[in-house]
Design goal:
Blueprint lengths: L1 H7 L4 H8 L3 E3 L3 H6 L14 H10 E5 L2 E10 L2 E7 L3 E5 L5 E3 L2 E3 L4 E4 L2 E7 L3 E7 L18
Antiparallel strand pairs: 1-3, 2-3, 3-10, 4-9, 5-8, 5-10, 6-7, 6-9
Length: 151
């Protein structure tokens, strides 16, 4: 468990994302909720190393309740920008503007196939980039449920 993770001192999240490419993260434990910034740390509890928490935050966006989906949010400057894609797959351009990825232009709502690794994105102006997992449908219209720790 978490004690072995801390005793070993090894970062694990990047390798897990590379090996399994999970498009969904269910933050149903205090450790995951804290890693995603949804909960403060409690005393006398072990959490993910900050580097592993940062990797999860860079790979997932809050969707609904305890559900996070693969996605990327980043402020881009005009010109060339680099992003690190942690999970390969199809993403939807959920930005407000056209983006240019590796020489191809994508309108808002276009589907983009991204491979794990560094990707070059160009924009004509500053932009709040938002790419979300393409298979995710619209969020439920119901109020978000209370997040309960399941495990």
């Amino acid at each position: 468990g978490m004690q072995n993770y801390h005793d070993n001192g090894d970062l694990i999240m990047d390798n897990l994302l590379e090996s399994f490419s999970p498009p969904l993260l269910l933050a149903n434990h205090k450790v995951l909720l804290q890693a995603m910034g949804a909960q403060e740390k409690e005393e006398n509890r072990l959490y993910l190393f900050p580097e592993d928490a940062n990797i999860l935050q860079s790979a997932y966006l809050k969707y609904w309740g305890a559900i996070y989906i693969a996605g990327i949010e980043k402020k881009l400057s005009a010109g060339e920008n680099h992003i690190n894609v942690r999970i390969s797959g199809n993403y939807r351009n959920d930005s407000d503007s056209v983006i240019n990825i590796n020489g191809t232009s994508y309108q808002p709502d276009d589907i983009i196939n991204l491979q794990r690794g560094e990707t070059l994105i160009s924009t004509d102006a500053e932009l709040a980039l938002r790419l979300i997992w393409a298979d995710a449908g619209p969020k439920p219209t119901l109020a978000e449920p209370e997040i309960l720790e399941l495990f």
